[in-house]
Amino acid sequence: MKSNFVKKSAITLLIALFWIGAWYIAALLVDSVLLLPTPHETLLALVELLGKPEFYKAVLFTFVRVAIGLLLGISAGIILAVLSHKFELLRRILSPAISIIRATPVASFIVLLWVLVRGNILTVLVAFLMVMPIVWQNTLDGFSSIPKELIEVAELYELSFKRKFNILILPVLSSYIFPAVITSVGLAWKSEIAAEIIAYTKNSIGMYINDAKTFMLTPAVFAWTAVIVLMSIALELLTRRLLRRFKNEPKH
């Protein structure tokens, strides 16, 4: 077990070093910090960001907005899917709207919503709209995959709804909802940052990326991008761990 972990860690490190080396060579060939800074220049910009109180404020505010949009999108997606499964008319009403939302580019949504709302509500709403359709569709697919024969057997043995839910319904739904939640984490991050950049949301990561772009501070743009990627990976890993723990908890 330990040897496998060491082996995987070594391989991961070698892959990371390979891409950092490729990045460094490309930066040397371009020979312009405005177009492509070196890893060293990006690291210096990141260290500079870490020394500013505004950095932590922006990261916190962006994280809170992402979390709100993500939680609202997941909750609404599951609730609407349950209702859509129960009421066929509601599913038919929602299906066209869900399809339009999923097909519309994030940038178009941001511009359209900008006419109606501004500030924090806009960014949260964008993240919400990117997450909710995925969870809605996956939850509905989960309901469709529940074997009807097992439900009939459960009713034959007069199992309570709680036991029927824990034994038959929840395991199937979780196998569909959990992947949707994990996918939504990264999508919520990307859509939130895009909304912050386009809408120039105050006290946000997107605002500082916009400023860095305006003043042609390319290393700062790369540094902020690295922060976004690392936070997205960390949040996804945390989500996976929480979902795994929930899945392994004994159901009574």
Describe this structure in words.
With 252 residues, this protein is mainly α. It contains 10 helices and no strands. The mean pLDDT is 87.
Brief summary of the model shown:
This protein has 252 residues and is mainly α.
Mean pLDDT: 87
Instruction: Please describe the biggest sheet, giving its number of strands, its sense, and whether it closes into a barrel.
Output: none
Number of strands: 0
Distance between the termini: 32 Å
So how many helices? Answer: 10
Helix content: over 70%
Question: Unreliable stretches, pLDDT < 50, 5 or more residues?
Answer: none
- By secondary-structure content and strand pairing, the structural class works out as mainly alpha
Q: What's the overall geometry?
A: globular
Percent of residues in beta strands: under 5%
> Over all CA atoms, what is the radius of gyration?
22 Å
How would you spell out the order of helices and strands? HHHHHHHHHH
Strand-helix topology:
Layout (H helix, E strand, L loop, with lengths): L1 H29 L8 H12 L2 H34 L1 H16 L2 H9 L5 H25 L3 H9 L4 H39 L5 H10 L3 H31 L4
List keywords for this structure.
252 residues, mainly alpha, 10 helices, globular
